[in-house]
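Why do we bother with holo predictions? Because pocket geometry can differ from the apo form. Keep that in mind while you read this record for acetoacetyl-coenzyme A.
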Amino acid sequence: MKIGIDQLHVYTPSLYLDLKDLAKARQVDPDKYTIGIGQDRMGINPITQDTVSMAANAAFPLINARNASEIDMIILATESGTDYSKSGATYLHDLLAIQPFARAIEVKQACYSGTAGIMMAYDYVSNHPDRKVLVVASDIARYGLGTAGEVTQGAGAVAMIISQNPRVLTLNNDSVPYTFHNFDFWRPNYAKNALVDGKYSNQAYIDAFQKTWHEHQRRHHTTLDALAAVCFHLPYSKMGKKALTTILDEESDTTNRLLTRYEKSVQYTRQIGNIYTGSLYLGFASLLDLDESLNAGETIGFFSYGSGSVAEFFTGELVENYRHHLYTSDHEKMLSQRYPLTIEEYETTFLESLPEDGSSVALSHPQDKAVIQLAAMDQHRRIYQIYDKVEQ
Ligand code: CAA
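The structure, written out:
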């Protein structure tokens, strides 16, 4: 049975900061951000977008009356969730009008958990071939104003439907997971921003990539020649390349192909930043949307990494006519119609917070045109609103 990604759709909020402006404000050479780190803009969420609303906006175009009755499970992968107890997936279930006899859960393991969700979905569909699973990875990456990680912040979500006979990518059921307890990046429950050992995190990422890649080669006789492209978890666009180049020959057709396609896979991340759990799949969407040289039947490698740490290397095969099922023009439109913030607006937005004392507040933002928004807080409850589709 063929199981995999039937559809995927990306959402990022309507605000961004140009990283040249950030460089100027932090008195850093802009080339460090745009070349050294490889980021151009960072997506910023207004107060009306949190991990739940972003996830709902990512999933909204994928859901119709038919598949809402076929989805048995909603898995929300996030490390910036809104509640210790109530999963964000329960809101998604309601906002997307999924049939009632479904599971709705949230999963966590730093940036890796989107992949955990996909693998759980794969197993579920294997046992229930006529049913579907909605996996949504949604996050807001926060390191803090003036920190080294600030330039690698971002916000967004990727929604995927996992089914049999998928229309985009068949998963090859060959995944190699790897767990290694460390403190490269983490966020204690009392902290609003992540703690990170930046240089060590880069090394931990590369080590996990090499371990999973070599084990994949050993178990499945995988070769680089057999891969049309490799998609990486992208905390910033240079990171995957640092790992990839450790296993490439200096010069060969394979090296050229993988490096050329790597550049296609990082274009959305360059514009949006790190979206943690969704970042690997943001890279995949970027590759699919922007690389016209890929062909159905070709094999894509995927490297997932979540600090702390869990990693996984797996492959999938592009399905015949996959291009007909992409949301390329939606993604292009969404990215081209965002509103640029000044540094002052960015810092104000970053420091804004929701009431924590149970008071009632109605929320709105003039630049938020999303279909689903966090519209109010009342007695510690988040209230979301579905607006009529507003042309952005
Ligand atoms: N022109 C061009 N390049 C320049 C430059 C200039 N003027 N100035 C510096 N650079 C280059 C540097 O040479 C360096 O390149 P290499 O990495 O190739 O050596 C690059 O810019 C970055 O410079 P620094 O290492 O000096 O940067 P930094 O110390 O300020 O911080 C960082 C970089 C560690 C990535 C930091 O942004 C950070 O902590 N980010 C968050 C953590 C992170 O993303 N880790 C990744 C792995 S962990 C993971 O993947 C999970 C996750 O999502 C968090």
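Residues 198-220 form the longest helix (23 residues).
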